[in-house]
Amino acid sequence: MGIIKETAERCYIKEVANDTGNVKISVARASVEPGVTTAWHSSKGISERYIIISGIGSPWDSGRKPAGADPICDEPDYPARAKDSNRIKIRVVIIEMH
């Protein structure tokens, strides 16, 4: 479907459902390499939900370490980042609600 792109936030993103006919929601897959902390970023006016499908990390450097199906909720305009403190790549599904 989509092309995997390296981002300025130091992660990789692949859009999997970003339909111009439905601009209210989009879905992407993301990954963060072991030992990498992504750059701070926020999405203006967009809520994001992250579901970690493999790996362990710390969202927002807060020390929380959700895994599996524990969703991470990111409100609009809220600066966020993630740290992969494990030896395996974090793989995440991102759902954006516009």
Write the SSE topology.
Layout: E1 5-6, E2 12-17, E3 25-32, E4 47-54, E5 58-59, E6 71-74, E7 82-83, E8 90-97
Antiparallel strand pairs: 1-2, 2-3, 3-8, 4-6, 4-8, 5-7
Q: Please state roughly what percent of the residues sit in beta strands, choosing from under 5%, 5-15%, 15-25%, 25-35%, 35-45% or over 45%.
A: 35-45%
CATH topology: Jelly Rolls
Name the CATH superfamily classification: Jelly Rolls
Structural class by SSE content: mainly beta
Tally of discrete structural domains: 1
Q: Give the overall shape, derived from the CA principal axes.
A: globular
Please give the alpha-carbon distance between the first and last residues: 21 Å
- Helix percentage: under 10%
For the record, what CATH class applies? Mainly Beta
Order of helices and strands: EEEEEEEE
The overall strand count is 8
Number of DSSP helical runs: 0
Major beta sheet, strand line-up: 1-2-3-8-4-6
The Rg value, from CA coordinates, equals 13 Å
The CATH architecture term is: Sandwich
Largest sheet: 6 strands, antiparallel
Uncertain residue ranges: none
